[in-house]
Amino acid sequence: MHELSIVIDLVALCEENLRKNNKSKIEEVHLKIGRLSGVEPHLLKSAYDVYKKETVCENAKLIINLQDIVVKCNSCEKESILKKNEFLCPKCGSNDLEVLDGEDMYLMSLTMS
Questions:
Q1: Which side of the chain, N or C, has fewer Cβ within a 10 Å radius?
Q2: Does 76 appear as a known binding residue?
Q3: Binding site annotation covers 89?
Q4: Each residue of 5-17: b (16+ CB within 10 Å) or e?
């Protein structure tokens, strides 16, 4: 379960941001997780809930925003959102696609006090 190692790094990043910003408490952690990132949001949430105890994130709410797959078709030049992992352009049916978003996980913001 690589989600636990992600959570360990995430909490360390939260601690670093608290120090840099002279804050004492994390209230919310906002993540963007792409559908192609390889991260399972429900497993990440479970790992977070277990690991956060007795850390700076102990009372922080984890907010996960799922990112759809955004592609650009190299045939018709249109950008589209894929709702399924079906890599065909919804406009022209081509499979010559470039993924623009949905492959990564990002820490989008922290609410600190």
A1: C
A2: yes
A3: yes
A4: ebbeebbeebeee
Q: How many domains are contained in the chain? A: 1
Q: Residue 60 is part of which domain span? A: 2-112
Count of CB atoms situated within 10 Å of the CB of 48: 22
57 is in an annotated binding site: no
Distances (CA, A) of 48 to 67, 90, 96, 97: 19, 36, 38, 34
Check residue 49 and give its pLDDT: 97
The CATH number covering residue 74 comes to: 3.30.2320.80
pTM of the shown model:
0.87
Q: Where are the alpha helices (DSSP H) in 21-109?
A: 41-51
